[in-house]
């Protein structure tokens, strides 16, 4: 039976990682993989995580099962981190939460929940969106459609086109929104735009599905949740998929959760009973370790303070690199305006060069980014930023777009 299967093409990001690994040039720069890197090019265990982990391991007396909703105090602590203390949806007992294997697990749980409630649900995603959204959301049979989002001429959002499209959708359409640090473009909505979008969602009875994978890496822990908090307070039904991979640096521990806001506590209980059934049917129970670490941090004022400083340091490094990069590119490539990189948020930007230029950077200068020119800004370092800008200048001279 299995011999019928034909080999699939290599995933583009895995292919890029393999090319990078095989490159022996000491100047090589990895701007492909979507993980945070410090100025040494490392993705370290955060000191707050290390301390919390030691506490957790020192206290642990069993590895017995937890439950299908995972670590309930973790879920509650995450709801407070995401929504803010005393958020109206929390005080009205309208939030139900389930731990998930990473943000990806939360996205899939949400998709399965929508399919259970309404099998012909259409999920609308931004153009472009994170490549993994497509298999995660359509894998359970939901239909995906696209709404306009990124404006390559400004590096910002085509907001009126986006609103115009969403304002024509039928009621109970699901709209997937990147809460902050849009992946792959770095183009985020302003607070005023979130408010306008809220009115369209309300008027058309749309169901927002917010993907919060970079809380703290854009403008700040509270600021990055502006849209999430607004929508959760104002709309009857909202789902929020949260990842602790980037902001807690817990990638491989697969830590995340799904929060669903509904109209009444009784509806919330019904929703949670379905989420438990869905989780049981896919993986039964989520991994515990990362959630225990996050709970240890969020449950201790000292550790939480330390974590806030550490996530703040990551954010400042990314913002600083963005500004340095804009300056360096202005010096080496004055013919082209890269100012948009300084106004975007989070780890990613679409650099805005064509595939031939991306390949020239790779083949001639050992600089690796995705073919669509998505680059991970955090992959740059103080000591190779200038090298990068000079390489771009050469590539633009030889193969102008
Ligand atoms: C937009 C977006 N959503 C969700 C995730 C979820 O990541 P994980 O499943 O590793 O927590 C990521 C990770 O790269 C992401 O970029």
Q: What does it look like?
A:
This protein starts with 11 loop residues before the first helix and ends with a helix. It contains 15 helices and 13 strands. It has 401 residues and is of the alpha/beta class. It is 45% helix and 14% strand. The radius of gyration is 21 Å and the shape is globular. Strands 2-10-9-8-7-3-4 form a seven-stranded mixed beta sheet, sandwiched between helices. The longest helix has 32 residues. Strand 7, helix 8 and strand 8 form a beta-alpha-beta unit. Pyridoxal-5'-phosphate binds next to helix 5.
**Gap between N and C termini:** 48 Å
Shape: globular
Q: Secondary-structure element sequence?
A: HEHHHEHEHEEEHEHEHEEHHHHEHEEH
Low-confidence stretches: none
Helix content: 40-55%
Number of strands: 13
**Distinct compounds present:** pyridoxal-5'-phosphate
Strand-residue fraction? Answer: 5-15%
Question: Mean pLDDT across all residues, rounded?
Answer: 96
The biggest beta sheet reads: 7 strands, mixed
**SS content category:** alpha/beta
The rounded Rg comes to 21 Å
Output the number of helix runs: 15
Lateral arrangement of strands in the main beta sheet: 2-10-9-8-7-3-4
């Amino acid at each position: 039976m299995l011999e019928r299967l034909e080999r699939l093409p290599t995933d583009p990001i895995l292919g890029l990682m393999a090319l990078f690994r095989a490159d022996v040039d000491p100047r090589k720069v990895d701007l492909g993989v979507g993980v945070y890197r410090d100025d040494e090019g490392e993705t370290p265990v955060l000191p707050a995580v290390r301390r919390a982990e030691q506490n957790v391991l020192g206290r642990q007396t069993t590895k017995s099962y937890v439950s299908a909703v995972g670590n309930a105090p973790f879920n509650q602590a995450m709801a407070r981190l995401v929504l803010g203390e005393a958020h109206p949806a929390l005080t009205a007992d309208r939030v139900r939460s389930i731990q998930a294997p990473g943000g990806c697990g939360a996205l899939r749980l949400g998709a399965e929940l929508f399919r259970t409630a309404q099998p012909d649900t259409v999920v609308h995603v931004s153009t472009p969106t994170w490549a993994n959204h497509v298999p995660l959301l359509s894998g359970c049979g939901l239909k995906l459609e696209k709404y306009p989002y990124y404006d390559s001429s400004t590096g910002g959002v085509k907001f009126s086109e986006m609103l115009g499209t969403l304002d024509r959708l039928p009621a109970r359409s699901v709209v997937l929104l990147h809460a902050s640090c849009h992946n792959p473009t770095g183009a985020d909505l302003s607070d005023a735009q979130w408010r306008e979008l809220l009115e369209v969602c309300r008027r058309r009875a749309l169901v927002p599905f917010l993907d919060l994978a970079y809380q703290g890496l854009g403008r700040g822990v509270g600021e990055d949740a502006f849209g999430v908090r607004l929508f959760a307070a104002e709309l009857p039904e909202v789902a929020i998929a949260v990842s602790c991979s980037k902001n807690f640096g817990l990638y491989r521990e697969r830590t995340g959760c799904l929060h669903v806001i509904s109209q009444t506590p009784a509806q919330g209980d019904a929703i949670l009973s379905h989420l438990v059934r869905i989780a049981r049917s896919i993986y039964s129970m989520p991994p515990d370790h990362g959630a225990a670490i996050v709970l240890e941090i969020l449950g201790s004022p000292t550790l939480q303070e330390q974590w806030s400083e550490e996530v703040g340091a990551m954010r400042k490094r990314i913002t600083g690199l963005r500004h340095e990069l804009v300056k360096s590119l202005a010096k080496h490539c004055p013919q082209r305006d890269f100012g948009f990189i300084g106004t975007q948020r989070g780890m990613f930007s679409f650099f805005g060069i064509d595939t031939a230029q991306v390949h020239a950077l790779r083949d001639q200068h050992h600089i690796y980014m995705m073919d669509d020119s998505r680059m991970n800004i955090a992959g740059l370092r103080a000591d190779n930023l200038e090298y990068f800008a000079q390489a771009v200048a050469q590539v633009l001279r030889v193969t102008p777009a």
